Amino acid sequence: MNILMICLGNICRSPLAEGIMKTKVPADFLVDSAGTISLHEGEHPDKRAIKTAANHGIDISSQRSRPINRRDFEIFDKIYCMDIDVFEDVISKAKNEAERQKVSLFLEVLGDHKNSEVPDPYWGSMEDFEKVFQLLEKGCNEISNQILK
């Protein structure tokens, strides 16, 4: 199983989701993250994301931001988007229905379609990063429960 987590810049939400998901699945699963923009390409995750993950025993410090590309639709079985704008951008890049079927909003896995967006903590505080971590943890737990059945 290959899983891709996507947010806008690939420095806050999706790196956290990648790091968390890697702790929930077997080592032979490919888990990666990307962004819909290339503004931060090559950069490490936001220092607050790195610190939040480290507070939970997860090291995301070696990750590097990258934009989503065409090959991702071929490699990944599941593509999870952190918010509706990201979802719509990713869907627009899919070339057929099979690729579109791989894409979903990350929090939809929890069954709460009214609150299906992971808020972007970039302009917030460490507390905002922790809240996002907790949401991502819940979602990753449910994803791993579903795929490891």
TrEMBL record:
Transmembrane segments: none annotated. The active site is at C7, R13, D120. Coiled coil: none annotated. Gene3D superfamilies: 3.40.50.2300. Its EC number is 3.1.3.48. InterPro entries: LMW_PTPase, Ptyr_pPase, Ptyr_pPase_sf, Tyr_phospatase_low_mol_wt. It is an enzyme of class 3 (hydrolase). The keyword Kinase does not apply. GO terms for molecular function: protein tyrosine phosphatase activity. The keyword Hydrolase applies. Keywords: Hydrolase, Protein phosphatase. It comes from the Bacteria. Pfam families: LMWPc (PF01451). Residues 1-146 form the Phosphotyrosine protein phosphatase I domain. Belongs to the low molecular weight phosphotyrosine protein phosphatase family. This is protein-tyrosine-phosphatase. It comes from Chryseobacterium gallinarum.
